[in-house]
Structure to design on (447 residues):
């Protein structure tokens, strides 16, 4: 395998990785290692002490990467050319590994799908509120918090009791007051540096330039990343009228919440509505605009991290925008199958990269179609990236033609590889929306 005798390794990290076959990458002589890890309360509970330091799921991934590094040569792979790919829950962990000293030298390339270490929903400093909520839910009543009792309850709870208790910890009023989406169990800052996956918030690391990265990175996003969350609105659009007078805004960046209903809150809310919605009003015809607004809770942190990372990195940072709408867009087909739009949502690229068991008939049906050609092109790009750190290392390619994917350049206009019916470099279509959030973030920090 490979011109130098050694093959190339890619580690696929996803909570459902067992459903994804490596067939397409094997054709490109890339070895795939699939990694599972602990998620939710079992993987990311942080009691801020020795009992549960947090980030256990991320540390599972680190252990797997160490195993790959030590053993990939037995599978004819090169330990110095390992690429990690993270999607779903794993995307934040992989994005954080770019900054984690614990992950140093474990991989040479990284691909991050619809995730960011700068997402306020997925990376927070303290987990105290979550720990108290778990305590109250498992105990069955809201009394004085007692850590020793919590440990006893956790130690004696069954798996199903723990998983059940970890769901729906925050109600809609708490999300409203937080003004940010909340993932109860995600990556967090650890209180003790020794053995930590992350002991400083990623934003602090970027701003202080504490990390010098030698990892080549691809950040990728789908055009409507959070559309899958709008199944209810997609089928009952009249509910959008209710949102117009009860719009509770969300911010895709860190900061202190404003009091709900305050003059400042109302001003920010109207500012967001004026930008995203025609005449500042949400109607039954506003679903696509609302989907863009909600998807920017994913896209803005991702683009922000990509830009910040390109400034500290000694290696290349690439950006892609997944816009292809086909029969194996698994996220779209599962969540909003009757929505006759173009575009893509969270998880839609997965079955074009990996052979999904649930799509066997679709692959056979489209063996000679545009779908199969799309698969060949996107897999070739990522296989090239695994091998060379460059998705388009040659001026001409039998599958990609003369396509050239340029990395981000400092002080240059932000460009992205658009993966649609055609593959081409374009100016980032979402840049105006990203500038809006940049300006609002800076304004809120000053006040």
């Amino acid at each position: 395998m490979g011109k130098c005798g050694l093959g190339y390794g890619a580690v696929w990290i996803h909570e459902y990785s067992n459903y994804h076959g490596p067939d397409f990458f094997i054709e490109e002589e890339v070895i795939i290692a699939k990694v599972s890890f602990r998620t939710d309360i079992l993987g990311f509970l942080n009691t801020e002490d020795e009992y549960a330091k947090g980030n256990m799921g991320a540390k599972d991934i680190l252990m797997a990467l160490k195993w790959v590094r030590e053993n990939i040569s037995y599978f004819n792979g090169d330990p110095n050319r390992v690429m990690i790919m993270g999607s779903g829950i794993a995307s934040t962990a992989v994005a954080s590994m770019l900054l984690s000293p614990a992950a140093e030298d474990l991989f040479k390339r990284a691909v991050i799908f619809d995730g960011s270490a700068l997402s306020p929903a997925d990376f927070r400093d303290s987990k105290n509120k979550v720990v108290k909520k778990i305590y109250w839910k498992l105990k069955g009543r809201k009394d004085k918090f007692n850590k020793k009792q919590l440990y006893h309850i956790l130690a004696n709870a069954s798996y199903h009791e723990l998983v059940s208790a970890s769901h729906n910890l925050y109600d809609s009023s708490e999300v409203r007051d937080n003004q940010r989406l909340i993932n109860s169990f995600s990556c967090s800052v650890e209180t003790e540096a020794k053995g930590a996956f992350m002991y400083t918030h990623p934003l602090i690391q970027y701003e202080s330039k504490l990390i010098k990265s030698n990892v080549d990175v691809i950040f990728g996003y789908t055009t409507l990343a959070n559309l899958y969350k709008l199944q209810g609105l997609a089928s009952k659009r009249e509910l959008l009228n209710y949102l117009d007078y009860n719009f509770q805004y969300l911010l895709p960046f860190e900061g202190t919440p404003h009091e709900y209903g305050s003059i400042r809150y109302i001003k920010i809310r109207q500012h967001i509505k004026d930008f995203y919605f025609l005449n500042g009003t949400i109607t039954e015809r506003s679903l696509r605009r609302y989907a863009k607004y909600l998807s920017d809770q994913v896209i803005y942190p991702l683009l922000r991290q990509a830009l910040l990372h390109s400034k500290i990195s000694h290696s290349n940072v690439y950006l892609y925008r997944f816009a292809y709408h086909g029969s194996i867009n698994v996220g779209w087909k599962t969540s909003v199958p009757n929505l006759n739009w173009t575009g893509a949502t969270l998880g839609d690229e997965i079955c074009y990269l990996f052979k999904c068991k649930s799509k066997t008939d679709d692959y056979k049906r489209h063996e000679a179609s545009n779908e199969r050609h799309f698969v060949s092109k996107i897999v070739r790009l990522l296989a090239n990236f695994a091998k060379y750190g460059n998705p388009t290392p040659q001026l001409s390619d039998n599958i990609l033609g003369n396509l050239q994917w340029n990395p981000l350049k400092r002080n240059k206009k932000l460009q992205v590889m658009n993966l649609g019916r055609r593959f081409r470099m374009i100016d980032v279509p979402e840049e105006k929306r990203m500038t809006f959030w940049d300006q609002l973030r800076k304004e809120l920090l000053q006040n």
The mean pLDDT is 92. The longest strand covers residues 77-86. The chain is about 40% helix and 15% strand.
